[in-house]
């Protein structure tokens, strides 16, 4: 087998994986079986936890095409392993898109270039020998991977998009649908059309949960304790584990049920399927396959698949997919006629590029519109988990693991505890062998050391802070589907915000209009519903150019369209189905002005008119919308073709981004001062929409218009003017952003809006300070042999004070381990702003500049959804902890990709977002960060406390082992339950500090101050415990216990009888009291308050618990109660020694508090001073870049300069050299 037979599946996608082939090996299977039996099943568990070890232990490498088992490893930073069994399916043919007859003749295998419609819709002729073709496949994460002979690799069959079909071929070759044989044949490959979220049985979930390494270790500990007759604590741990498992099972089961219910609405519905041109039949949606043609009913349906519209129009609620609750209009896919060449019709069909023509699975079809006598039809493109909804469900079912330094360090810390346990284990083993104890006693007590040093309650204790934080977040309306990310929120140092609906209000308010007459701007006007304007093209465009519709009598559609239409005062009239059924014509939507807006000449009171005549005159101003070209975010415009009643020729109206609209108009109709007027409005933060009009040729008929390409319409237009809309800031926005700025948390705006509008809003809300410069990076792709370039220019004139260079010595930098410093001063001087187009060019041609730009990038405008995700990835690549806050519309990818995605929408699209806020403003962001910081500090406190508890108890046992003694069962029980569990679960209750501070908590346990704190406390506690242990043995009244004689061989028969005497002695009592107080001392010392949590004295459950425990210990120390002493197996030591113990404990307390206070006060500053003295390069990439740029004289680029990207001299090298040109 060649080692290089390594395949890449899903190349270039988020779930890209390396694939190796293996074949089962019988002798290896036998060896593994024997090994599993010899190790009591532990080897089976190990192989269950480590799929790569399992495959390598039971299989041998083979060619991927011959493999029985596929071993896959993700290529991302997590390098996760997956194992899948390769199965063989006997299919009637090899290619799902071809017919069986052609495959039998030509023996083509999986050549996806040929079209399915090469087979006429007749019956498929089967192979006379009825030979089935073996097809190899495996299933991973609800996705089937089939072996493709032509590319020698496994691949996913997604649907019709695999064919790379053009829009015209969708109409010509796929519009007839499939017959039953073809459908059945394709179902062999695509399976049933269902997003099958199986809700596992409780038994399956229980087995999976119990086989967690943590619970296995607990099981081992419980068995060991029961062997040692330590039943009470064993029962306590069992009860805790049962509660933990039950809670976990309930949560997991609830999530599965929620997902199952989410897809249940459209999992099985009855649909009408076309069989040939005119034949239809009823079928279940689960039978659908790519290539089927379905009829969309007029009363609507929840889509069971992804399908492209080929006939008719649909009004769809896509809130499930985009989070946008406003219904959108979907039109049929362009179908270019023979006489119209070029344009979108010949483009390769893509669900992303043609989403305005695609109906997505799970979306709700509200209404349909169509030509009279024709049906609304759609071609099924994708089914099952390949659909948009399926991919959303898959992202929830199989999320990426949370990568956080705290968890990596926690495992490292556990390994250290295991190392300590190993040393003490060997020590106790040797001591007990020397003391000639029974073999069972040696084994049990030595293994017991491991359960003491690595406490089984540690994971439960670590999650306590997260559980409490989650509960507090729920009270302020923030819900989480990924509680582990709460800790990560404590590390956020950059937050990206969507603009519309997040920083600003959802709706737009009409501010005014500015019409153009004779190529010049008219003065601005506040209202468009003036009688003098009712017959103008400008108002007609406002009234007609939109995608509004009536649903249950209410106008519905895009909020911008609604405001624009309402400003005209016109009325929208939709013809009913009954009214149009008698005419062979298109069902039109009309708009008309109300009677009171008609010109005086029409409605003169001197004329004695009947109401019917008045209506006819009003109807003469009615405009029928013949064709809509929906708004496209890529084109940044929409247009309509209309005809006014009584007119023979049709008109086209266009609206969109001013720059785009102006480029489509005749130059002479665009005012010379267009750019200046537009800039003036956008600088003030207004949203500006431009309008245009064109009189169409008389030869264009209704039916020609339905098939014409929009590029034929949207050209040579007359510029009509501007609509100025106001998008107000939410009242909470400036205050929240100021809080984040003071806390040294960078804020970035990512929006689909205009660049200058976004910059203006960024200034208004405080994201960009008044004195800061804004540098616009305008990147242009290579053109006419010229290299790609970036033109730099300032959005406005920088103030004089900004020209002063900032000295590096005056700046402080925030260290990643939480040191107090102000990195923001480096970035206060200037901000970069760029558009989505520029961002795409920079990613492709200026990789060297990309990280420098995002380091200071504050405004990213006109960004597409996938670009938002790319931006988050780029920010994370320079080691920022990134939060993303959006309203769910177009933010889903970025919300999922960020360390902490916060959706302000409760709609279904946001289910993949880790956090959802019910409060529709950004106050949730500082709340989440504060709670994250509190939870993170709580995790550190608990981990430090549990580490000290392990070491202190380990030392106590080791010291007592040295004299043949041990702690009693009830002493262990009192320490483990009454002290440790109570303290752990109450010290975690500290709520978050009331405000965000500039200082950030450390991101991991392996940081200087934190390690120093743990080590010093260990040394202090060990020192004072050993001091007490040695001192008591030096006192005059102390005598060695009688049980020492038990270790002499002839006394072995007395071993069992001496167990109680071995525990109940002066040294044991001393060690018990000293260690019990030490647990409380370190708990109080480690329970930190400000600046991340409320002070510990405000945590009354913790204070009360600590006081009760301290009081109880002092009580039984100085006022012995015989029953309590017998229960805890204590002896009454002289009063002088009890006073001595108090003095030892006071010394312990004083030193612990003093050292910890010193670390808090000076540790961070000392570490910062040492780092600066040694000129240590910061670990975080963004800080390293900030240091480099602060001393770079050529950065930032000069205004009105250009940076060109030149190919490197070596042809194989795709990097670019940066050259600045003034």
Would you give an account of this structure?
This protein is of the alpha+beta class and 1222 residues long. 41% of the residues lie in helices and 18% in strands. It has five domains: 158 residues, no CATH class; 61 residues; 291 residues, Calcium-transporting ATPase, transmembrane domain (Up-down Bundle), CATH 1.20.1110; 201 residues, Rossmann fold (3-Layer(aba) Sandwich); 218 residues, Calcium-transporting ATPase, cytoplasmic domain N (3-Layer(aba) Sandwich), CATH 3.40.1110. The strands form seven sheets. It has a twelve-stranded mixed β-sheet with strand order 20-40-39-38-21-33-37-36-34-35-41-42, with helices on both faces. A nine-stranded antiparallel β-sheet has the order 23-22-32-31-30-29-28-27-26, sandwiched between helices. A six-stranded antiparallel β-sheet has the order 11-10-12-19-14-17, covered by helices on one side. Helix 33 packs antiparallel against helix 38. It is globular and about 120 Å long. The C terminus is likely disordered. Its main location: membrane. GO terms for molecular function: ABC-type putrescine transporter activity; ATP binding; ATP hydrolysis activity; ATPase-coupled monoatomic cation transmembrane transporter activity; metal ion binding; P-type ion transporter activity.
